[in-house]
């Protein structure tokens, strides 16, 4: 019997709380505080900057880990130089030079003084990756550039 009375009382209290909650929410939503901030203008034409890897950079990350990470770190020198900002160094701003270097460093070094300097500085030769396509190299560059932000 006592249990039934407790259930009835609890049900009654819940029935009272629902309308009271609705009343409080309505009072808060119509309060002067919210009306004061209603003058905020939202510009829906602005595209938000999302800190998300692009598809190209995501693919580039995979290639970087498979091909480059053994010798290169993005932020510090290792067996090879750090890669953040590499396009501002040497002749890498010309993408064709980069393709040629990655696919055949030995041949490229014969015609490029900066590449020879890298070999002298690091004491080792870059591994050739003749199997990488232009798109895959571009994806690696997208990944490196994503991390330079």
Which CATH architecture of the largest domain would you pick? Answer: Orthogonal Bundle
- Under CATH at level 1, the class of the largest domain stands as Mainly Alpha
Secondary structure tally, helices: 7
Classification by helices and strands: mainly alpha
User: How confident is the prediction overall: mean pLDDT?
Assistant: 83
Q: How many strand units?
A: 0
Strand content: under 5%
Distance between the termini: 69 Å
Q: Kindly report the CATH topology of the largest domain.
A: Cytochrome Bc1 Complex, Chain D, domain 2
Net shape: rod-shaped
Q: Look at the structure and name the CATH superfamily of the largest domain.
A: Cytochrome c-like domain
Largest sheet: none
Count of the separate structural domains: 2
List low-pLDDT spans: none
How does this structure look, described?
The chain is mainly α and 149 residues long. It has helices at 2-29, 32-36, 55-68, 95-103, 105-111, 113-122, 134-147. It has 2 domains: 2-39; 55-147, Orthogonal Bundle (Cytochrome Bc1 Complex, Chain D, domain 2), CATH 1.10.760.10. It has 7 helices and no strands. Helix 3 packs across helix 7 (134-147) and helix 4 crosses helix 5.
